Amino acid sequence: MKKIILSIDGMTCSACSNGLEKYLNKQDGIKNASVNLVMANASIEYDESKLTQTKIEEFVKKAGFKSLGEFKKINTNKKNKKEKVKFIIFTVLAIILMYISMGHMINLPVIPFLDPHKFTTNYMIVLLVFSICFIIYGFDIIRNGYKNLIYKTPNMDTLVGIGVITSFLYSLYNMYLVFKGNTDLVMNLYFESSSIVIYFIKLGRYIDRLSKDKTTEAIQKLVKITPNTAVIKVDGKLKNVTLDEINKGDILVCKSGEKVAVDGEIIEGKAHFDESFITGESKPQAKEIGNKVIAGSLNYDGYIEYKAEKIGKDSTVSEIVKLVVEATNTKAPIAKVADKVSGYFIPIVIIIAIVTFIIYLIIGQSFETAITTFVTILVVACPCSLGLATPLAIIVSEGLCASNGILIKKSEILENAQKTDVIIFDKTGTLTYGKLKISEIRNFSDMKEEQLLQIVGSIESKTTHPIGKAFVDYLEENKIEKLEVKEFENITGYGIIGKANNQKIIIGNSKILDNYNIENKYKQEEKELASKGNSIVYVVQDNKIISLIGVNDIIRTETKEVLRNLLTIKIEPIMVTGDNEDTAKVIAKELGITKIIAGVLPKEKSNIVKQLQKENKFVMMCGDGINDSPALAISNIGVSVNSGTDIAMDSADVILTNNNLNSIIKLINISKKTIKNIKQNLFWAFFYNSLMIPIAMGLLKPFGIFINPMIASLAMVLSSITVILNTLRLKNIIKRK
Hints:
Elements (H helix, E strand, L loop, with lengths): L1 E8 L4 H12 L4 E7 L4 E6 L6 H10 L3 E5 L6 H26 L17 H18 L1 H12 L5 H24 L11 H25 L1 H8 L4 E6 L2 E6 L8 E4 L8 E12 L1 H4 L5 E3 L4 E2 L4 E2 L3 E8 L5 H13 L4 H30 L4 H14 L3 H20 L2 E3 L3 H5 L5 E5 H5 L5 E7 L5 H12 L5 H12 L7 E7 L3 E6 L2 E6 L1 H6 L7 H8 L4 E7 L2 E9 L6 H10 L3 E5 L4 H11 L4 E2 L4 H13 L4 E5 L5 H6 L2 E4 L13 E3 L5 H36 L11 H20 L4 H4 L1
Helix pairs in contact: 1-11, 3-4, 3-7, 4-6, 4-7, 5-6, 6-7, 6-12, 7-13, 7-25, 10-13, 11-12, 11-13, 12-24, 12-25, 13-24, 13-25, 16-17, 24-25
């Protein structure tokens, strides 16, 4: 299976995106298609043995839309400038048209040669010319509406197109009758109505486009974060190049005040870097030789040379943009409900309009009144606000998350995070920094302590576990050379085995002793070390314990505050760890956690999650994203810390790029606010249609309440603006917290 994201042109409402999505999902070879109205793209997973990109683009065309090729970046500036100029011109034309057609009704001075009673022909021809101009301006609406009707996916354009053409043709017919001598019908021309309807629809779309640009601000900032040029070092000389000219392995230079061009590793110098665009942390990060730098980060105060490692689409920034864009193409359950409603809504509106038109004629109303009511219903019912209600809120919230170091892989996370009842925290590397230090050694062998640690450290260097790093750091700090290791074996959840200096050594926790039937004579020593908060490492040779090594970890500075805040919002924190119970209790007491599960293997963490889910708990699992991957995968929401720049490799639903547990509280808060905002948007969208359709049908005429097509189109725009303004309030969430 292959996945591709295509840019789509011609979508104007949720019925468009929903119709295209349904059409694509019906095609043989497409496993799954998800269409995003706000981002104007479609994420498609397909069988490449059956389909090609060209064939998929043909499907898009047949559905009444246009593929602009593979989605690569967000860039709307040129299009917006062109649209702005057009909009200004037609705003002026709309004002002139309204003055000519309706000015005399409110006693404004009449243009002499356009007086409808004295110069009827001039008056009608000018209105016709204006009307044709506006139909050309809105031809994309009419064309798309017609295409979608033909392909049985009627949308907002279908409603507007039918209404505008009906009004235009009716006016054209009356104009013909005027030329035949029935001059009284000059006041029954509705050229201005069809024109102003198009104008207001375009106004709404222009506002929508601006609002969509606002919602994608965070993603746009990421796209623009990297510099356009860089300085590389070739044979000792500096050379300015574009990013496209940089290759893996090139040596680049970054001076104070400059941005890092590509992901890489520092080989000379040191400096402080602003990585807030990735992590959300404003505090500069100190970097030196051997440390990684991320494209787009700002060098505050030093000089470095670094080797290019990830360039172009492989860079961290590109991966983040890709993840955020893909996340916006997944549908939250609440969005699917809105899409389903939109799919039924438009056919129902068309039926209501036709039935109302027929009833008006049956009860003796004039054809003019019936046709005006028909057009008004079609225009006022356009589900613009309904289509914007959910996707706008989702994208604003995902942008908020991305700019605060929270990467979400599925939109449904934003809906579900607020349902969390329990959060399971892995201890090492999650509640703690995972920066372990050797604190105490009990040596029962004939070897000197340095020799023992040289062997253990050499074998531990073959693993990526935080405990292993503690031994490697010890060797490096004490300038002890690593030995060659043979016959290395990793026994997940228990420990490791390796041969160094011709000695086969088993290293692990107390469970590894049971696994190899090794007698433990040092339980008292283990208890003493554990009472000091140490994780215990057993070293075994020839089926005998030769050493107990205590390794200590540092608790994250924010951990206690986060756990207190979780209890305040009635979410239960649970600590799980592979350490023995004594060590776990020491850490738990310091953190204020009442529920701990100790001596747990990685596969057993999954069972804990399953058990809580059986108790109808909504479970969030927070771990390091590697050792905890089975539990992260099975939990309702998997949250990964310590991902660093290996974002694409992580299997969790949520990645905390800033490695700060406070982000979990932010995520839950954003989730609550987002769902509240979506519900508000949907309420106003449904309330608007529930109120305006009966008014458009004329049911409230006895009370003096009625509207015409022009007022209907303006009301539709105002409903969309209400949803947009309400959604943009979400941007203040983080600022207030």
